[in-house]
Amino acid sequence: MVRFAPHLARLCLAGSVLIGCGTGTHNYVPEQDEPDSGSSLQVVPNVNVCPVFNQSLVIPRSIAPRASAEVVVFATDPDGTDASLEFDWTASSGSFTQPTRPVTGYSCADPGPQVLHVRAVDRLGCRVQLDLDVTCLDE
């Protein structure tokens, strides 16, 4: 709770001021909202905390030709429900069995080092990315 000091506002305001806080408003009128009236203003910030990747696992990290790796990430949304997170997997080459899930399979297309990118997006659009390195083995 933020205490609004009406007696200070009277020094610089004539009339009234409408204060918007995202979830509601308080119409402060200096003549009516005296310091002893108990007027207060609750400020509720409209802040979205982005998802956080907590753990990841790639088995195996060195992938043989015509084989695949199981890839798992665990992410949380500090100010939302984890079930509402959306995932999107991409790679410099290769393919994913379920590119919109936190658990997927990855198959190589080209030999050499590859970077697997996974993005998690919360319900308000905050996007974070985690990069995982794998090696695709040559035949």
Task: Please give a quick description of this structure.
The chain folds into two domains: about 1-45, no CATH class; about 50-135, Immunoglobulin-like (Sandwich), CATH 2.60.40.
What does this structure look like?
It is built from one helix and ten strands. The chain has 139 residues and is mainly beta. The chain folds into two domains: 46 residues, no CATH class; 85 residues, Immunoglobulin-like, CATH 2.60.40.1080. The strands form three sheets. It has a four-stranded antiparallel sheet, with no helix packed on it. A four-stranded mixed sheet has the order 4-10-9-6, with no helix packed on it. The protein has a two-stranded antiparallel ribbon with strand order 1-2. A hairpin with a 6-residue loop joins strand 7 and strand 8. The chain is elongated and about 55 Å long. The N terminus is likely disordered.
- Outline: elongated
The level-1 CATH class of the largest domain: Mainly Beta
Tally of helical runs: 1
Q: Domain count, please report it.
A: 2
* Biggest sheet, spatial arrangement of strands: 3-5-8-7
Strand percentage lies at: 35-45%
Number of strands: 10
Average of the residue pLDDT scores: 80
Any key phrases for this structure?
single chain, 139 residues, mainly beta, Immunoglobulin-like, 2 domains, four-stranded antiparallel sheet, four-stranded mixed sheet, 5% helix, elongated, disordered N terminus
